[in-house]
Description:
The structure is a single chain. The chain is of the alpha+beta class. It is built from 10 helices and 10 strands. The protein has helices spanning 11-19, 21-27, 39-47, 106-109, 130-138, 141-167, 170-181, 197-204, 208-220, 236-245, and strands at residues 50-54, 59-61, 70-76, 79-84, 90-96, 101-102, 116-119, 123-129, 224-227, 230-233.
Amino acid sequence: MHARLRVPITFAWWEKAMEALSDMMANLPPDSLLMALDPQQIEALLKDATRRDLKPDDVVINQGDENGDYAVYVLSGGLKIGFVSAGGREIILSYCAPGEVVGEIALLDSGPRTATATAVVESSVLLLPSKNFLEAVSSSPASVARIMRELAQRVRQQNLIIESDRTFSMGPRLARALVRLVDKDRTDGRLLYNPSQSDLGAFAGLARENVSRLLSEWESQDIIARDGRTLTVRDVEYLRSLAEFGEET
Length: 249
């Protein structure tokens, strides 16, 4: 999908968006590249953004697209971020909730897309043009320094993730995936976006059969509960401990 499919933002919508600018700033993750900009720079960037409304399974970023000239800010709903490996296996990197930004690296290099962003529920997003982002950053040495620090931190974090995936066995890896998906706005342990076992496997780096076996074991221990496809985490603290420290030897 390319930016030429944009739907222009109406004045009424823009006026409403500007009223909510402080909320959008507050919702940005601390590791977002947009945090390198000043509020006035983000406002200028949003003025040239365009809105898209997505249905489930709609793709807003496609792996392999040659010209990544925009990032995606999630207004509502949620996106699944993943890619297909050389062997044809789907790997899910993350799920993005409202307030998060997808495809940020394209804001810096406009290079080919390395992953696909797909709506998992009805969603609304903003397409943020990379040209405007680069213009804003280049006008502020402080912004450049903040971006360099953030990129360095991402390299460190990626190294930790790779190391943990090599170290931890199947149980901790699935536990980490479930903990990341627990809906923090609910108190009943429901998962965001109601993922299938195949999606959980792609997210945790496990075969679906292993996911099914582990979920059955945890259900018998009352760690999780299932009602059809809906999965509820009953013992979040157990899974958090398992995700962090691994299985006891």
